[in-house]
Amino acid sequence: MSDRILGFQKKGHAMIIEIDTSPAYDEGARVRLSSEFADLCEKIAWDEDVRALVLTYADGWLLTTERDVTSPSAQAGAPSLVESVARLKQPVIAAIRGDAIDIGLELALACDIRIGTKGSRLGLPAVSRGSMPSAGGTQRLPRLVGYGKAMEMLLTGDLIGAAEAEAMGLLNRLVSREELMNTALALATEMALKSPLSLAFVKEALHKGMDLTLDQGMRLELDLYLLLFTASDRAEGITAFKEKRKPRFEGT
Predict the structure, then answer these.
(1) φ/ψ of residue 231, rounded to 5
(2) Which residues, at least 6 apart from 129, have a Cβ–Cβ distance to it below 8 Å?
(3) What's the helix, strand, coil split of the chain in %, to 5?
(4) Any idea where the domains of the chain sit in the sequence?
(5) Of 49, 149, 175, 193, which alpha carbon lies 20 to 30 A from 167's?
(6) What is the DSSP secondary structure assignment for residue 247, as one 8-state letter?
């Protein structure tokens, strides 16, 4: 597999992961990518020095297949690119270079923040091929944009423009290609200055709360809030506020 298919680099407490989707990799290469990506995400999940991530990719041959890997036999033995991202406790920003279609959009939906580029298109057109999304598209899209709009996009298979995607909340921000990485990295760097525990607990409250009643979600939020009382980061945050300085969070 090419050295360029999966790259990563750290910028302070932020990490950039880049998936190169431009070459036409064979099925075996895609399976290996999924496995290597899952291993990397597992390491990141336990790395206290990584507090926010930028995942960048261009929708291409690799990410417009119906699943992370194309055949049922390959699917059985390969981890999912999408679920590897969804399980991360750190905030993940999708920096999408161009279109986000099929698995490219499902991968973005598993991230916490989505930044798109002007002039791009987004959609899940699997029904046009007699298929359907199978990496979370039918579940995550309505939770993000609402039942009605998600149903329309899924049943028609139509692609929407980036401006419309931003208006409906599918994209958090819309920038030029030249601005994409600077915008994403600036946002990740800003998040990385916060307490890692607070970031992780906020993610947990949001994700788990979507499947709970309001009362259950409120109890989950309170439980997580009370857990932070035992954290050194909370004490550091209060001390820094009193001393009028920036806090130095350690994630403990």
Answers:
(1) -90, 145
(2) 66
(3) 50, 15, 35
(4) 6-192, 196-242
(5) 193
(6) -
Look up residue 22 and give its two tokens: 């431009």
State how far the alpha carbon of 25 is from the alpha carbons of 16, 32, 63, 83, 245, in Å: 22, 10, 11, 21, 50
Burial of 57 (0-12, 13-18, 19+ CB in 10 A): buried
Selected from 3.30.980.10, 3.30.300.30, 3.90.226.10, 1.10.287.70, the CATH number assigned to the domain covering 6-192 reads: 3.90.226.10
The Cα–Cα gap between 12 and 99 comes to 29
The CATH code of the domain at 196-242 is 1.10.12
> Other C-beta atoms within 10 Å of 236: how many?
16
pLDDT at 234: 72
52/192 Cα distance (integer angstroms):
6
- pTM greater than 0.90 (yes/no): no
188 close to 203: Cβ distance less than 8 angstroms: no
